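Continuing the batch. This is chain 6 of the set; chains 1 through 5 are on the previous pages. Same settings as before, nothing changed between runs. Recording input and output for traceability.
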Amino acid sequence: MVTKFVSRCMGRTHRLPFFVGCAASVLVALQTLASGAGSAATESLTGNNPGAGNLATTASTASPTPKKGDQVNVKTFGAVGDGVTNDTEAFSAALKALADAGGGTCLVPKGTYLISASGITPVNIAAVLSDVRLVGEGRRESVLKVNGMPTNHLLRCDGDNWSVENLTFDMGDYTPPKVGFAAIVCRGNNWRVANCAIVKSGRWAIQAYGGSNWSIEGNYISRTVPGAMPPAGAILVTAQNGVCSSHGRVSDNVCEGGGIGFSGTDGIIARNRVNRCGNGSGIFVQGSPTTRSPKIIGNICTGGLSGHDGNLGGKWASVTGFEIWAPESVICNNVAHDNDAGGIAVGGQNSIVIANTAYNNGRAHAGFGGFAARVNPHRGASASHSIFIGNSAYDTRYPSHNATQDYGYLEQNANRDLANAGQAAEITDIKHFGDDYNRNRVGPIKSRAPRGSAVATQISPEMKSKLNALAEDADLPDNARRAVRKYLTR
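Output for chain 6:
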């Protein structure tokens, strides 16, 4: 399942190789806002856990047969936490006891707990089940460390109303030959993975399958394995048995050396920081039919590298900041800078792109820009009928020869033989209002589209209704709402 998803999502067959840039005056405001909105991400880097409390030292039952709602200490079940003793059985027993009781909290005191390469439970058996919480003293204090090349997920979670909080998972830089293994695997509804660290992550750190109303928030993820043999990344949200997530939230995470891949309806991807992603895109959002109406708000993607791409026959491809294929996306207040490829690429119809900044991208190759409107005829996807409001794209070194971001905005169309085959091969009806695409190495705009496709002024009643709603949407920052109101009253 994961292999198929990654092949579809991260494959270069539909990469967004062109991107665009914006203006310096907007940059200062956006960077300040992104920095403030992402305060939880900064805390993820420093290891602080606001509000975590000292849960692992609170009172817990000494009985190995708890009642529903009890707190138990994993050491009661035989865990040592000395970094030498294998504590897998103790974790398995404690979590099973709480599941049998109908739920409760498993406290993990300060220490380093060695966990078998086969994970806390056998393959396809969940360790954290409905109404169970696995909680540490803090991610600098409570560490679960794998003791060899993983042959399973370290921690599998399944059910409703469960959580994993305030822990570190040390994956030892192991890169399993099997693609699917991760530190934490998540299934079910109304769950939460929060304030954890997954360090030395070889493949994926957190994988979420389907479900609704869940949250991955405030985590710090670091992938330090050299190179970028795919598929690898920080957070992967995909389908379970063909059913994608609904109303999932990925927010305030810091991802070093790996990106975020997302599919699902009505999701929110907010205030994440992605640095040095080595393959695919910093943040990749799948397209129709699996994904629709996501909000991508206040994220920062920087330092995207050139990485190995299996779907290109082992070639190396440059990494872009954002690659968003979902129709009806809201892409707001994001920053993409210093990526080897482009900044922010949009490939979903009826998307709204507001107050984003892209600068100094295109480090590895010529021809990239800050923003790109893209088309994928093979999937019938394009950025047609989208609107760009108050965005800025530029190179800070302009007009120096050291500038790398060629264009502010690029608009791509596929070749005519695909169009003649009846596939969507052109981008039409892109609107721009208040965007600044100046101060790029080659020029502000490059478009292969038919004349007039990027200057249409009328919007549909449906688009106007969406913009009116966004003007009052509390999820959007004030500057973005102001830009929308200005457009609506022009």
